[in-house]
Amino acid sequence: MVDGMGRRAIVFLHGCPLRCLFCANPETSRAAACATSSCVSVQQVVDRLKRLQSYQLDGITVSGGEPLVQPQFTAALMREARAQLGWTCTLDTSGCSTRAAVRQEVADTAAQIRAAGVQCITERL
Ligand code: SF4
Predict the structure, then answer these.
(1) Where are the domains of the chain?
(2) What's the pLDDT tens digit per position in 81-96?
(3) pLDDT by residue (tens digit) across 27-55?
(4) Rounded CA separation 22/80 (Å)
(5) Helix (H) or strand (E) segment spanning residue 9
(6) Which ligand 1 atom is nearest residue 96's CA?
(7) pTM metric for this prediction
(8) How far lies 95's CA from each of 5, 43, 49, 65, 73, in Å?
(9) How far apart are CA 58 and CA 21, in angstroms?
(10) Which residue minimizes the CA distance to atom 8 of ligand 1?
(11) Structural contact between residues 7 and 56, judged by C-beta atoms closer than 8 angstroms
């Protein structure tokens, strides 16, 4: 088990406002990385993940960098991974984002949990 339960694919997103000395992925937050990284759509990422289905993965972990720097992309990626692959989704975050983005992610996640049949949820931030 690394970065979540079971066998997982990890999607590393670019960008992080912090500069931790111990960062394992400093290239994801340095400006120089922009020259070698590319912009992809949510569907392009999901299509790449579909190629991994033969490995019988349990889910994806969205990491970085800081995934909440791109909250809409992160939420859409997790939504489509669940819908198209049936995989669980884990968010690897420092929580370093705007309060509104975190609030929205908590609300979206709570809605998905309720949709799965769990009725008693307390959302706090
Ligand atoms: S928050 Fe995480 S990704 Fe960002 S600099 Fe620190 S260790 Fe690296």
Answers:
(1) 8-96
(2) 999 999 999 988 887 8
(3) 877 654 455 567 899 999 999 999 999 99
(4) 32
(5) strand 8-12
(6) 1
(7) 0.75
(8) 20, 25, 25, 11, 16
(9) 32
(10) 23
(11) yes
